[in-house]
Amino acid sequence: MSTHPPSALPEELAAAIGAVLADISGSADNRAEIRALTDAMIRLLAGAPLRSDGKLTIKSLATEANLRRNKLTHKHTGLKDLFYALVTAQEGRPAVTEQLYRENETLRADLARVKEERARLKAQAKQFARVVQILEVENHQLRQSAEQSSTISVFPGLRN
What is the pLDDT of residue 91? Predict the structure, then answer.
């Protein structure tokens, strides 16, 4: 068993095999599915997903290809096996995808923080609205009582 890296990149292998399979497939639907799957493999292996989370899994591959997962597990099992082999040959996830995951986690944490702050501010705004409403009612009542009475009443409290 050789420890030398393969001469072709996994993306190139997926493209070549996909082209051959699409050429020999019978129906147009099969060719379109094979083309979609191999294009999705290339994007995932290169670390540039368009539709999925970028994980190197069958679920992500199906999502990236815009196909149902059972198309891989029941109909295109050879492509599923090819994908697993290419992932193994690549030894994990591309560095670009790792960086995207870290950035995504940072953004999720920021979003959670902003949502918390938004909820706090909404509650505070509701409380301020209630206070303003009470002050408006009290002000209205004071104005009415001042209009009805010609005498000035002094509120009990501290006097200087």
Answer: 67
